[in-house]
Amino acid sequence: MMHDDLWTMLQEGGYTLVVRSAGGEIKTSRERGVKPLFILLRHFPALLLRASLADKVVGKGAAAMMIAGGVKQVRTGVISRPALQLLLAHGVEVQYEEEVETIVNRSRTGPCPVETLCASAPTAEACLPLIEEFIRSNNRPKPE
Questions:
Q1: Rounded CA separation 18/55 (Å)
Q2: How many angstroms from the chain centroid is the CA of residue 34?
Q3: Burial letters for 13-27: b for 16+ Cβ neighbours within 10 Å, e otherwise?
Q4: Which of 75, 89, 131, 141 has the fewest beta carbons closer than 10 A?
């Protein structure tokens, strides 16, 4: 069913994201959060169309970008219930180790900010501008 080789590559390579395009091209990232997926969606959208991917953690924001990009299959360690529902509603094949109510932030002190941002967005498309603004605001130079 799912491409276990991508999952193996993700784990053995220490990656956070592994994507195999419909044409067989492989892209990997070790960057955390939704940024690697966002960069692919914005700059290499053809890579995501009918792609298979392995991602360590999938929240609603990541799911929205996968849907917008036309991803066909997803394998993940942890997925939030809203992300799972969104992916299944769009016909994406999903395989996961653990389903959780919400994705937690990196410091484990509360919910993931992108998950929180996208919580009330009714569709995948509605999540995208929220994610874009989040990434843009987090890439601004910090005052000294």
A1: 7
A2: 6
A3: eebbbbbbbeeeeeb
A4: 141
- The two three-digit tokens of residue 2, written as one number: 């799912």
Query: For each of the chain's 144 residues, which pLDDT tens digit applies?
Result: 456 799 999 999 999 999 999 999 999 999 989 999 999 999 999 999 999 999 999 999 999 999 999 999 999 999 999 999 999 999 999 999 999 999 998 899 999 999 999 999 999 999 999 999 999 998 777 666
Answer yes or no: pTM beyond 0.90. yes
For 107, the enclosing helix (H) or strand (E) is none
Cβ contacts of 18-27, under 8 Å, gap ≥ 24 = 18/53, 18/54, 18/55, 19/47, 19/48, 19/51, 19/52, 19/53, 20/51, 20/52, 20/53, 21/46, 21/47, 21/48, 21/49, 21/50, 21/51, 22/49, 22/50, 22/51, 22/72
Across 85-99, b (16+ Cβ under 10 Å) vs e yields ebbeebebebebeee
